[in-house]
Design a protein that fits this description.
This protein is of the alpha+beta class. Helix content is about 40%, strand content about 25%. A hairpin with a 2-residue loop joins strand 5 (about 100-105) and strand 6 (about 110-115). Bound molecules: calcium ion (CA). Calcium ion binds near residues 35, 190, 191, 192 and 231.
Amino acid sequence: MATSGKSAALSHIGKIRANNQDSGYAGSSLFVVADGMGGHAGGDVASAMAIKRIMLTDTTYNSAQDAEFALQSALLAANALLAETVFDHQELTGMGTTVSAIMLVGTELAIAHIGDSRIYLYRDDTITQVTADHTFVQRLVDSGRITPEEAAVHPRRSVLMRVLGDVDSSPEIDTTVHDVRPGDRWLLCSDGLSGYVSDEKMHLVLSTVPDPDAAAQRLVKESLDQGAPDNVTVVLVDIDDSGDVTRSSMTPPVLVGSAAEPLSFEADVPRRPLRLPTLLLHPLRATPPADEHFEPESEEYLDELILEDRRRARNRRIAWLIAIGVAAIAIIVGILLAYQWTQTRYFVGADGTTVAIYQGVQADVGPLPLSSVYQETGITLASLPSYTRQTVEDTISADSLSDARDIIERLTSVSN
Ligand code: CA
């Protein structure tokens, strides 16, 4: 009988987020990662509530099929619980959570999965993604509209098509049964890991760090090294073949992330009065989800979103062109104003062998002079005392035209 020889669970808030909306659980047979979403005090509540409901199924089963059914029922029960909670706490409207769960049963395991958290299997020195992302971009990839490379950088890559929450009363949950082999390493993680750490890096850690705690820490560190813009949660399950040592006999179950904290919303907010009319009109959909993590599933809507993305890209390009145009106009106007200012200035200088009043400033911009002769005076340089001549050749600044004329008068008086 295959058992979890050792497991590890680790959750980190990351480097950007204000709170940790991920939750993780490592029990005796059950291992779960949940990534919550929703505005103020929503996502952390959703993932913690889901995990606490699902962990009630952590027991022994006769078959992997029984475990599969139990997991699916638990996820649906968690979904109903979230909807009930939103009904009582309107401020949590739109909260939801992904769930990816593993239940070990003998030489098999059952998986239940919804959302974009992932389960990977490391076996025979190869890492394989076992779950499929229920994301908008994965739908686009599956239908051939974009490539996986485009999906990785797509602006809507975090939009989920399916989650547990208050939107859908019977969400579609993926369940599967897999063989388990001694030496397997099953990795459950939130997109805070898989979205920022490459499969190659994960493979390197899983193939070189045998201790699950150390491996989980290394994986979280890889995400932190990438800047960790999101919460990061890792649950790692190592399968050994001893058969008589189950994890539960060694260590108590571990909860990490928001599931490890007390639920904070219950005390803060008074019970909301019953809002029966809205509920009757739109069962379980009395208010739209608050953020864009969930989108209804239909081909028409997908096409609409693709068109909208294109429109946005086009609008961004137009906005750029306008911004560049405005900047260019501002620069031209600035140059004209600067030139205009230079033409309010005067100075006295030499023009060949005679003295002249110049309009502008004594500088050139590239090949363009910023001054021109305004008035010839008829005073020859030769008629000036040598010191005065030198001063004229170096140019004499004037504050105004009349100032320049005063200078000419003084020069006339010293010339001979
Ligand atoms: Ca996340």
